[in-house]
């Protein structure tokens, strides 16, 4: 069996490589474990539950300091552990992205004071990944003072103080230097993601001030952090993210290192090649690989379209988040405990939950966050990896944009108009797919589609075609051709996974 972890990950032109050759890193970001986000608690937009320090305060109010400490210890043990790494590996991924909150590693006091128990968590995750042959990205998701200026970095006042206050700036550099000292020799670590989504956009509705003036300080932090790291660690890949939720390209105006990746995020955009093009141009310019380090929070058809583009362009990707409550578009969905609404209501100014009732509620929550008590969504992983039954919107059949054809722009996410005498081609996936189901419409009856030269007559305006393939025909080109005189609208495609050989 081929090993995943085979030497240090490094950039080589526009691709990542290890000692075994070219590698595309794929996996999940482990949100809400070491840095909580309120929406993954199904927090109903409660401002007192939107970030770690505020969630911690509400839990402490309800059950006291001693029980609160016990709660968080159990939370760390139950939410994510070796069994989760095993699941991610089994689904077909080769890596995870681990978000870190600086308060687990450093005292929130003046000066530099490290907390050993925080590093022990990383040590344990390293062992899990070594056991399961999985690479590990270390992601500073919440830097000292906050690099974003929002709930996602656990900031105090929605200001990116990492880049404003000297003490926070130095703490951030010291943390990366300490990580480099401790982990320079670990091949299982893919690299260091220096800052997650630095410098958010201005938003008057959320009282977010304009912090654009801090971009030069962001670049200075990147350069000084790399310098500190390279004093101790010349092995690991460096990840650099742009500002404005890792979507802006302006920080990518220089060659930051000889071993680095351009890291960007994409949510909610139409899944076409044009949303990748600014970063593909940078990859070409600097001859460095691309990493779509966060994406997801969408429909499964969207997932499959995005990873199709990534696969074609050799872009590594990590979806977000692996586990959460309140939605099924993740790998693991947490069930809602009884009386969870009482917890939410209290955080919004409602009646305080009695002590014993709060203990019972939180104990139930701690039980339900275990993956073996959760709802497992294998269909999500199959859509992402295209290694099981999955569905595509019509326009994404071949994994990239086909705007030059007759397309209804009002439904750009949904349909593809196959013109008269037109055809599209795409690859049959490399798993045991035995059936292809095409769904579409035609305003002119009869109509005819040819699949790999074999005709299929359409006698109704709305049609469903099911085509059977031999399991051995993996990775072949599938050609769909309109044999008629009028356009045919293709709405959806589903590859159906057969029994394993």
From TrEMBL:
InterPro entries: GH, Glyco_hydro_5, Glycosyl_hydrolase_5. Keywords: Carbohydrate metabolism, Cellulose degradation, Glycosidase, Hydrolase, Polysaccharide degradation. It holds the Pfam family Cellulase. It comes from the Bacteria. The keyword Lipid biosynthesis does not apply. Residues 81-322 form the Glycoside hydrolase family domain. GO terms for cellular component: cell surface; extracellular region. GO terms for molecular function: beta-glucosidase activity. One of its GO terms (biological process) is cellulose catabolic process. PANTHER family: ENDOGLUCANASE, PUTATIVE (AFU_ORTHOLOGUE AFUA_5G01830)-RELATED, GLUCAN ENDO-1,6-BETA-GLUCOSIDASE B. Belongs to the glycosyl hydrolase 5 (cellulase A) family. This is Glycoside hydrolase family 5 domain-containing protein. It comes from Lactococcus fujiensis JCM 16395. The lineage of its organism: Bacteria, Bacillati, Bacillota, Bacilli, Lactobacillales.
């Amino acid at each position: 069996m081929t090993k995943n972890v085979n030497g240090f990950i490094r950039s080589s032109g526009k691709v990542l490589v290890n000692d075994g050759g070219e590698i595309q890193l794929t996996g999940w970001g482990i949100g809400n474990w070491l840095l909580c986000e309120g929406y993954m608690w199904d927090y109903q937009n409660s401002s007192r539950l939107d970030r770690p320090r505020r969630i911690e305060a509400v839990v402490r109010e309800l059950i006291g300091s001693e029980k609160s400490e016990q709660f968080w210890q159990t939370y760390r043990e139950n939410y994510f552990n070796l069994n989760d790494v095993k699941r991610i590996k089994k689904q077909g991924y080769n890596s995870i992205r681990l978000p870190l909150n600086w308060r687990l590693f450093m005292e929130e006091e003046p000066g530099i004071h490290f907390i050993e128990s925080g590093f022990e968590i990383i040590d344990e995750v390293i062992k899990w990944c070594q056991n399961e042959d999985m690479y590990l990205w270390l992601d500073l998701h919440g830097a000292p003072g906050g690099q974003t200026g929002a709930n996602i970095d656990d900031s105090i006042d929605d200001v990116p103080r990492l880049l404003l206050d000297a003490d926070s700036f130095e703490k951030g550099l010291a943390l990366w230097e300490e990580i480099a000292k401790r982990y320079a020799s670990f091949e299982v670590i893919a690299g260091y993601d220096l800052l997650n989504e630095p410098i958010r956009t201005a938003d008057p509705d959320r009282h977010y001030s304009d912090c654009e003036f801090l971009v030069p300080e962001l670049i200075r932090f990147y350069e000084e952090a790399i310098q500190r790291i390279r004093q101790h660690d010349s092995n690991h890949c460096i990840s650099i993210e742009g500002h404005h939720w890792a979507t802006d390209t302006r920080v990518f105006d220089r060659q930051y290192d000889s071993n680095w990746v351009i890291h960007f995020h994409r949510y909610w955009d139409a899944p076409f090649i044009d949303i990748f093009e600014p970063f593909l141009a940078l990859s070409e310019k600097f001859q460095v690989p691309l990493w779509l380090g966060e994406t997801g929070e969408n429909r499964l058809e969207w997932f499959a379209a995005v990873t199709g583009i990534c696969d074609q362009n050799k872009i590594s990707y990590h979806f977000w988040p692996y586990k959460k409550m309140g939605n099924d578009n993740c790998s693991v969905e947490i069930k809602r405990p009884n009386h969870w609404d009482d917890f939410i209501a209290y955080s919004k100014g409602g009646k305080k939950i009695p002590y014993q009732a709060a203990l019972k509620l939180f104990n139930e929550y701690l039980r339900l966050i275990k993956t073996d008590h959760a709802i497992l969504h294998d269909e999500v992983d199959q859509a992402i990896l295209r290694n099981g039954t999955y569905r595509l919107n019509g326009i994404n059949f071949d994994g990239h944009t086909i705007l030059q054809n007759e397309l209804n722009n009002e439904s750009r996410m949904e349909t593809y108009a196959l013109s008269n005498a037109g055809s599209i081609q795409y690859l049959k996936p490399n798993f045991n797919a035995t059936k292809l189901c095409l769904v579409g419409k035609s305003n002119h009856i009869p109509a005819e589609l040819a699949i790999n030269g074999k005709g299929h007559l359409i006698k109704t305006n709305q049609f469903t075609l099911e085509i059977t393939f031999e399991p051995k025909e993996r990775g072949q080109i599938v050609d769909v051709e309109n044999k008629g005189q009028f356009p045919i609208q293709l709405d959806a495609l589903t590859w159906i996974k057969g029994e394993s050989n």
